[in-house]
Write a structure and sequence with these properties.
Number of strands: 7
Order of helices and strands: HEEEEEEEH
Strand content: 25-35%
Strand order of the largest sheet: 2-3-4-5-7
Radius of gyration: 16 Å
Length: about 120
């Protein structure tokens, strides 16, 4: 019984963390971000909702990599999901984002730790 309870608890925490990471991505897509090479990596937090999202321009590609993080309080593990996005207003100084179809990832395509948030 204890073993089954432990597995159920772990599974519930996994799904909660995954939901937070997905929510972070969705929240980040709706935010307005700095555009252009001067923007570097940008991160936003919603402390009340427990959301964290970071945006990194991938200079060698036409897309931007959005990283959503899910972290439950009292836990040291973080679930990280990625979404390839493009700016809705590519020539503006700031822009909301539009997800690329099929651009959701549960791993980082880039080999650079700075881009993936290592």
């Amino acid at each position: 019984m204890d073993s089954a309870l432990y597995v159920t608890h772990d599974e519930r925490r996994y799904w909660q963390t995954l939901t937070l990471a997905e929510s972070s991505l969705q929240w980040g897509i709706g935010q307005v971000w700095l555009m252009g090479s001067r923007s570097g990596e940008q991160c936003l937090n919603s402390v009340t909702e427990g959301l964290r999202v970071c945006l990194r321009q991938v200079l060698s590609e036409y897309y931007i990599l959005l990283r959503g993080e899910g972290h439950l309080s009292g836990s040291s593990s973080v679930m990280v999901l990625y979404q390839r996005v493009v700016p809705i207003e590519p020539d503006g100084d700031t822009s909301p984002l539009k997800p690329i179809a099929g651009g959701w990832l549960d791993f980082c395509l880039e080999r650079q730790e700075a881009i993936c948030g290592g």
